[in-house]
């Protein structure tokens, strides 16, 4: 009787190993609970991103809010901001490297800047992503902007994943972007 019990136990363990190896990550996923989608809108991690539509310097309309094809990095900046100037070449490189998975939208908070300087900044730093002028600071206020630059990382579902005040070392920002794209 004991012998049959050991054989049955060995068989069950072996069967479990075979099932686990053939299913792999699918088993883990089956036992993990997905977080429900947030319903509240706030410019904070874990909430839906405040929606806005703005026209870029290229004349096209850009929309943030709700599900998108790609993750989004919204970059609030001003031309006179030294950290924004430091960050511009890094954002250029990231926009190029992750163009298939990430949209970067530059929002010049023109309320605290001016159109001429913003356009000069875009040319000087060869900004390769859409830039919008927030003439009255409406979008910046909607996102409770406090410093320049402010970067808001939004996943494909329209959920804010991170809000970065000031600049990060490039490797740290890229790490956050990789995590954003994978989420």
UniProtKB/TrEMBL annotation:
Classification via CDD domains: TlpA_like_family (cd02966)
Keywords on record: Disulfide bond
UniProt xrefs under InterPro entries: AhpC/TSA (IPR000866), Thioredoxin-like_sf (IPR036249), Thioredoxin_domain (IPR013766), Thioredoxin_ResA/DsbE_sf (IPR050553)
Domain (Thioredoxin): residue spans on this chain: 43-182
Pfam families per the UniProt record, alphabetical: AhpC-TSA
Domain of life: Bacteria
UniProt name for this protein: Redoxin
Organism of provenance: Paenibacillus rhizosphaerae
């Amino acid at each position: 009787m004991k012998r049959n019990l050991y054989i049955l136990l060995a068989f069950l363990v072996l069967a479990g190993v075979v099932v686990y190896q053939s299913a792999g990550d699918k088993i883990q996923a089956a036992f993990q609970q997905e977080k429900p989608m947030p319903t509240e809108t706030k410019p904070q991690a874990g909430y839906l991103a405040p929606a806005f539509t703005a026209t870029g310097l290229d004349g096209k309309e850009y929309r943030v809010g709700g599900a998108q094809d790609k993750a989004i990095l919204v970059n609030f900046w001003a031309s006179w901001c030294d950290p924004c100037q430091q960050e511009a070449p890094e954002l250029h490189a990231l926009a190029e490297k992750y163009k298939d998975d990430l949209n970067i939208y530059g929002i010049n908070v023109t309320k605290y800047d001016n159109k001429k300087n913003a356009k000069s900044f875009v040319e000087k730093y060869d900004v390769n992503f859409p830039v919008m002028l927030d003439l009255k600071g409406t979008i910046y206020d909607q996102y409770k902007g406090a410093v320049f630059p402010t970067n808001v990382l939004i996943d494909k579902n329209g959920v804010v994943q991170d809000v970065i005040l000031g600049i990060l070392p490039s490797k740290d920002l890229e790490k956050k972007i990789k995590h954003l794209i994978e989420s």
